[in-house]
Amino acid sequence: MTAAVPRSGAIAEPLVAAASDRLNAECFCIGLDADAVRQALDSGIGQPGLRALLEERCPYALAARPVFVSSVQLMRMSAIVAAIESVVALPAYRDIVLSRAPSIARYSPGARGVFYGYDFHVTPSAMGLIEVNTNAGGAMLNALLARAQRACCRSIQRLLPPAATADAFEARIIDMFRHEWLLSGRAGPLRTIAIVDEQPEAQYLYPEFLLFQRLLEANGITAVIAAPGDLRLRDGVLTCGTHAIDLVYNRLTDFYFDTQASAVLREAYLQDAAVVTPHPHAHALYADKRNLALLSDPMQLQQLGVPVATQAVLLAGIPRTEIVDQANQERLWAERKRLFFKPFGGFGSRAAYRGDKITQRVWQEVVAGSHVAQAHVTPGERTLSGGDAPQILKFDLRQYVYQGEVQWTAARLYQGQTTNFRTPGGGFAPVYETPDACLGLQDGPARHCAGESSAC
């Protein structure tokens, strides 16, 4: 007999996060030092023209203010990550998710996959994992952001991470690529990496590719930025121009290499001509939205033999998710106002719809297509300014994960339905961890004085 576990849904018990909640609402300290950003881009980690390119291409990529998160919230997020990793390791889970994935996903390379992104919505009263990505962008922008923080007051100064944090994160990035190389059974040093995306120079985050290139080359690894069509495969060797490619850092959203443009990369992956990371196997195991339906279903978790304690973490931390089909469409339509609909293999919020905004026409596309319905979890809020018309943005939290270990936590500030990097004042924001009770917040309401607020 299996012990009972809670019904699924976002964690909804009161979270001990009063300090972080009030700081997010009442602290207007500027956290980003624009001069430090310029200096970083124009010096060691940058290259000529990169600062201008970032300012032109990504004017809202770096938020001016930090997001505050309590230690309790961060620990619960990490516990959800660990619980998912433990289930993904189960052979029964792998059998289920790989049986419905394209055949290429059943090829299991040695590499684990770099830059998994676990995305959360966190509020004072709830927390929920909204999705997992296996090619999460933004890591290098967050390293840049970490180098350019300043505090307007002594209280916030205590929350800033040490100056060496960004260096340590970048060192972990290099170690991660080299570890992927070793996991794939390669001998000798990792010499060349191709950063591959469709029309890379046209991508919004192209400046980040340049930051990756600079970091890799500073660590003795030749790096090229390429489209999949630039790759050639001959006699078991993958090349790009004059370079033999050891490893492909894959930023494509063609997750299973289905398109003609990805044909060479597909063959190189299947022939093990180069290490490809992340890869189709990882996407099927982690990022297919149908996996969230399995991970938030108590009956399926019991059938998989997931320990009761792990079930409790998953069911409390993952919003209830269902695959939309003919059998449940009438019920889901009736419940749509509390649901969010996402395609199985979606990315960047494409073809994703908030239920209270959906029309009958779009609903027919959802039913006919390949979507999941996920219980809506309200995103957190960060107030950027006070006064009679305060500017309030939403935020989500992203934990960058490798081999089950959280390497970095970042926030994304935005307006609208989903993150978009089009919002003035928005973009990636540093996360400052607050103890469960801190900074004298219990002493009274904060004064909205930059640099002198009792909340900061």
Notes on the structure:
With 456 residues, this protein is of the alpha+beta class. The protein has one domain (18-319, 377-443). It has 16 helices and 18 strands. The longest helix is centred in the middle third of the chain and has 19 residues, at 165-183. The N and C termini lie far apart (51 Å).
N-to-C CA distance: 51 Å
Give the percentage of residues in beta strands: 15-25%
What number is the mean pLDDT?
Answer: 88
Oligomer: single chain
Q: How big is the Rg?
A: 22 Å
> What helical percentage do the residues reach?
25-40%
Approximate shape:
globular
Main sheet summary:
7 strands, mixed
Please state the structural category.
alpha+beta
Tally of structural domains: 1
SS element count, helices: 16
Number of strands: 18
Which residue ranges are poorly predicted, with pLDDT under 50 across at least 5 consecutive positions?
1-8, 12-16, 437-456
List keywords for this structure.
single chain, 456 residues, alpha+beta, seven-stranded mixed sheet, four-stranded parallel sheet, 16 helices, 33% helix, disordered N terminus
